[in-house]
Structure formats: C-alpha cells, structure tokens
Write a structure and sequence with these properties.
By secondary structure, this protein is mainly alpha-helical. Helix content is about 85%, strand content about 0%. The longest helix is centred in the N-terminal third of the chain and has 45 residues. The chain is elongated, with a radius of gyration of 22 Å. The two termini are about 35 Å apart.
Length: about 140
Amino acid sequence: MSAATRIRSLCLLAAATPLIGCGRLQTLRDCDELSSAVNPRLEKIGATNSDSSPRTASKLAAEYAQLAAQVDNLRSRNSELSSRTAEYSKLLHQASHDLAIFAQPQSDVAAVPAASKELLSRRLADLRNRERHVIFRINRICR
C-alpha cells in the first residue's frame, strides 16, 4: 500500500469516526427514551394486584395497551433497535389482547372456569419469557 493510499484511508477513517460516534450517541438517547417510557409503566403493572380476577385483567389489559401505544410511538435510526422495539410492541399488544379476552365475558372470578385461568396463566407466562428475551436483546444494543 502506497503512502498516498494509506493517508487517504486514514483521512476517510478520521472523517467517519465522528459519524460513528454520533450514531452511537443517538442510539443511546433512543435507548434512554425507551427506558423512560417503559420502566415506570412496568412498575405500575408490577404493582397491580395479581388476583387473576376479570377486573384485574381489565386493568392490566389497559396498562399493556397504553404501554404498547407508547412503544409504538418511539422511533430509532438504529435498525436493530427499531426492529427489537417493534417486536416488543407486538408482545405488549398480545398481552393486552389476551388479558382483554379474559376480562370481557366474565363478571367475577367464580364464573371463570379453571381451564380458562390456567390457559391465561400459561399464555402470560409464555409472553413474559418472550418479553425477557426481547428485553435482553434490546439491552445488548443499548450497552
């Protein structure tokens, strides 16, 4: 490699370095925005009574729907973060949908067949596992 080629390569690298840094800073800002939107609502969801009543399911469905709407409104220029955020939003919408179905037809816990409660419990456990996986992947991007 000639000296002129090395100098051109070095100049290109020097010119690209700030752009890479700016992109990373923007990704970190996007991660912070996601975290600021999600964490308080997840704390509220976690504090909700988990008595598996239709009333509780209805409250949780509304919370998950609001959280999904917040996540839907977040944008990132980082394509991987954007993809993981969309995946997370899809899971939140699914949780809201499942909880709303559970809450709708019954008016009290005694009317809900044990099989329905078990099915809901399994679906939500599956969603939580998938959510943990997506959050792990988001955290890898945000480090």
